[in-house]
Amino acid sequence: MTTKFGAVGVFGRANAGKSTLVNALVGEVVSIVSNRPQTTRKRILGILTINETQLVFCDTPGLHAIKNKLDAYMNDEIMSTMKGLQAGLYLTDLSDIKLDLDEEYISQLDPSSEMPLFLVFNKSDLVEENKIEEATKAYESLYPFKKIFVISAKKKKGLKQLLNALCRVVPKGPHAYDADDYTSQTEREIVEETIRECILRLYNQEVPHSVAVQVEEFKERENGKTYIEATLNVEKEAHKRIIIGKDGGGIKKIGKIAREKLNTMLGRDIFLQLWVKIRQDWRHDDLWIKRLGYKR
After folding, report:
1. Which pLDDT value is given to residue 41?
2. Distance of CA 11 to CAs 1, 86, 222, 279, Å?
3. According to the model, what pLDDT value does residue 80 have?
4. I need a labelling partner for 64 at 20 to 30 A (CA). Which of 15, 217, 243, 247 fits?
5. Which residues of the chain have pLDDT under 50?
6. Res 36: pLDDT
7. Start-to-end CA span in the chain (Å)
8. Is residue 8 within 8 Å of 168, Cβ to Cβ?
């Protein structure tokens, strides 16, 4: 049997719906999702095998202003992902068109590259048909896109056509992963991202952006439970107080929600122990950026 393989970059501004799309295409929770910008910090690989074709989706951080060393790392993740791809998707939120920002992002892509790039208009369920027509005319001149797709990742509309197009353009080659694999993340990384997603969903202030989760211990115990100890690193004493909450109510809620989700995702009973530590201005510190896994 002749197999096909392709790495597919998923690009776009923050909150375009990249993580939601990757999760919908793969059929599993690969990337954490929230309505806050900068949710995705690292390049996340989602793996989908359809018969003889294997697609590896590279979910990248969204384009945003660089304010600290963490932002710089995230921007580097975008740039490095562009190398060695067999196809690319550029996502635009139809309900929040910002042509100038998308033009700035797209200008960093090489039109002479042999990589086919598809323009994907997402969140079509939130707009009228005339908005789609206007956007198509405006974006066609920005880049020689292979084709334009109109989808709703959340409603899972238009995904079959997009997948068919990707399967057609990727080259022949051996598969890099087993057919049952759906992500390249380790279980530790899945735990860290799941806990951070809970924090993103529970807090609406600056706190989520200052949090980095680090698994300190991951052990299988004789009683059948998996013991996981993780530290929530924040930048300020005030952030620590908010996370812990009154009488520890905040961190207990984070732990409860994360543990229930992890029980399902990892398929076993989790005992989750959380701690909060202050790492003053860690997003500006090269040493802590590296220690917390945001620098290779």
Report:
1. 44
2. 32, 14, 44, 31
3. 57
4. 243
5. 32-42, 63-65, 74, 78
6. 45
7. 37
8. no
